[in-house]
Design goal:
The chain is of the alpha/beta class. It is built from 15 helices and 17 strands. It is globular and about 55 Å long. It starts with 16 loop residues before the first strand and ends with a strand.
Length: about 375
Amino acid sequence: MSRPEGVTPAAPAAGGALLLYGATGYTGELIARRAVERGLRPLLAGRSAPALATLAAELGLPHRVFALDDAAAVDAGLEGVAAVLHAAGPFSRTSRPMVDGCLRRRVHYLDITGEGAVFGALARRDAEARAAGVTLLPGVGFDVVPTDGLAAHLARRLPGATRLTLAFKAVGQPSRGTTLTALEGIHLGGMIRRGGKLTRVPAAWRTRDFDFGRGPVTCMTIPWGDVWTAWHTTGIPDIEVYLAAPRALRAFSVVSRFVGPLLGSRPVQRALAALVTSKLTGPDAAARARGLSLLYGEVEHADGRRAAARLTTPEGYAFTALAAVECAERVLAGQARPGFLTPSLAFGPDLSLSIAGVERLDLALADGTGPRSSGA
């Protein structure tokens, strides 16, 4: 691994400074406020000096301004830092320069991505991270902490399962950043895993009804991060992820199969980004408090045995702030080994249950085992 001449990385240590990059974004600010509630004093960072100065002054925190397109600036920005919590997307553009800097400076890396390609790219750097003594822990928000934990829990209940199905229903509105990330990949279609291999499928390739505890809801397949991460977590070779989707969204997804190149073109992407930027911010505090996220998972063994469970969490952005800070605290405490990790590989299948407002219900097994509930 190369590094700029004259830069000697210090070994990462338990404890030490946490740098929150992208602190002035919608989710970044939620994380910053949650960190302060937990008694942490993260170093706020990003590209916008005025916005950072304002937020840092309000929260009584230090701040540091640097962009990610200059390796020397990244190295300077990571001086004295033990771990980075990266919240500035789209991560397809921003994760690599930050990870490069973390590996050069031997700083632990966490992010809140849900982008499958980013999980794949970081998994390929496992050996590099192990050699540097650095933890690479992407997906410490709603993408993918609750679904990853549900997958790990079901694999624990039914060892040797060969098929995993996950589904979720989000009650609330998306933020600007989440929407921009979704639009960036809308022309690429869907993704599942078959026989342990990533397999490209059309958008809304399959629909299925799931009961999240309030009656059946029609869902469609989406290329959610667990198609990448759950295989690392569980070793289950066949994985599909579904999103509860109204009829209009399912119809649009089907249409996108035929106009994918147009949707992916630069002019259309620019126009969509401008529209989203002008119309969306993110759910306010009242909406976050009202919102919920409902999840369902099931696994199946080759002999026909099945296991299923439901999970209920706070609204997705509220959950992300809670989970991201929880994971950062654990990494700073030295609880995660070096290398690429999913949240469940780092902290176990029950990580979500350490977060207030999360409840899990095990559904009946084929052998007649009844439901069991657990929660924080």
